[in-house]
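In the previous chapter we treated chains in isolation. Here, by contrast, the input contains two separate entities that must be folded as one system, with a combined length of 227 residues.
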Amino acid sequence: KAGVTQTPRYLIKTRGQQVTLSCSPISGHRSVSWYQQTPGQGLQFLFEYFSETQRNKGNFPGRFSGRQFSNSRSEMNVSTLELGDSALYLCASSLQGTVGEKLFFGSGTQLSVL
Amino acid sequence: QKEVEQNSGPLSVPEGAIASLNCTYSDRGSQSFFWYRQYSGKSPELIMFIYSNGDKEDGRFTAQLNKASQYVSLLIRDSQPSDSATYLCAVNMITGGGNKLTFGTGTQLKVEL
């Protein structure tokens, strides 16, 4: 069974640009969550999608948005990039996204903002 | 107070020893607890999960949970150099809702030959 697939693996952007990251969950998994990982803050929750609906959102500005498609694939968009957005963006999937379910992470997208 | 706290380390143990990693959490209503291992430059990999008070063993790994003390730990027996990584404690807090995990900042483990 294929794992969680994230593309691209690396991205370099400049301030003010926008970026879209993609995530394909494990087959059969319907919940997709996004996390930001930085050396100083660790892993922080961005949002979670289930059946094309955002069910939960972390404390990030509105520049961070996402969506989920009918095949459970998800995209995350960051507009008007800032230097502080440089981070590893991780996608995780689980079957139903219920409390206590195990999350499986993709390899991540390393975003560098110059 | 951070929601999930871990000692950042590094924790150094000799090969073959027991490594003990600790984590405390703030939300007394939390129900699910996870340990992830993350090698440098890689994504987190789930290695243990525990939902009930007590111990849960899986191979060389034992997770321990004490909800009264709001404390969860991970023991690694017969530590190997390949266990050298950052270990992340994650908690599914009731206040978060759904399957949102709150992570500690991780403990770096170094297993020395």
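Residues 50 and 89 of chain A are 19 Å apart (CA to CA). The two ends of chain A are 37 Å apart (CA to CA). Compare these points with the single-chain example from earlier in the chapter.
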